Amino acid sequence: MTVPDVLISEVGPRDGLQSVKATMPTADKLRWIDALYKAGIREIEVASFVPARLLPQMADAAEVVRHAVTLPGLSVMALVPNRKGAEAALAAGVHKLTMPVSASAAHSLANVRKTREEMVEEVRAISELRRDIAPQVRLEAGISTAFGCTLQGEVPEDEVIWLAAQCVAAGADESGLSDTVGYANPAQVRRLFKRLRAELGDKAGAAHMHNTRGLGLANCLAAYEEGVRTFDSSLGGLGGCPYAPGASGNVVTEDLVFMFEAMGVRTGIDIDQLIAARAPLIAGLPGEPVYGMTPEAGLPKGFVQGFQGAAHV
Description:
Elements: E1 7-10, H1 12-16, H2 26-38, E2 43-48, H3 61-68, E3 75-79, H4 83-92, E4 96-102, H5 105-112, H6 116-133, E5 138-144, H7 157-169, E6 174-178, H8 186-200, E7 204-208, H9 216-225, E8 230-233, H10 253-263, H11 271-276, H12 278-284, H13 293-297
Parallel strand pairs: 1-2, 1-8, 2-3, 3-4, 4-5, 5-6, 6-7, 7-8
Helix pairs in contact: 2-3, 2-12, 3-4, 4-6, 6-7, 7-8, 8-9
């Protein structure tokens, strides 16, 4: 079996579903996850463990995790904002925890009602928890609003790198950068990921880009050119942070996979099957708009995955 050159981490079942008003029925969620898996996706953020009164879309998180972990070779990931959420996620059997740690002081208070320093202590507490009861589970601290914030405006780059380093020192296995509100540009992405990799080495984590201003793919390519090999995206471009005004649209998984495959960068994902995975998403959220240029335009005539030229490094 050929090892992919990049890991596409699908975040639609969590980041996508928590951003829409409708709640997808559990059975539709499971069909959607199965379809993503059939397409070759091997890491999926399936839920967030938060109070149902805050995000009723995630009330079935444990049930969704219990189904997802039955799929062989799938890394099942869940977002947890605090120790209580981590306890529930670990009990459900997740393989990876991801924590949102905002580089913007204003967004941190709005999103999780804690300061950045308090969130670093949450990382430490959750790291100790998983060490004691589930040491095989990985922990990622995603630095949200790393490229700017709709509440605060500019976020100093020194603070972004400092916070990522603090999270790793507190026990996170890796720390990536998230463009929560779609402010990033390719030059900024290159600069920050270069600094992150210099600071953290192999503990520098994923690129989580939004397409709010149409730069999502360009920013992913910039991150790839700086050595990033894990990319978050959402089928149909579904998603956005409910506590960050204007934070619409994750990078479209279908377009991201097409870009890499067209470059000769192997994703391990079948594009036709990936486009087919839109059907259970649309069925589970009737009337919700989905996006993507590749599904709309179709694949170029003669396009064969894995034979589009040498990988760009």
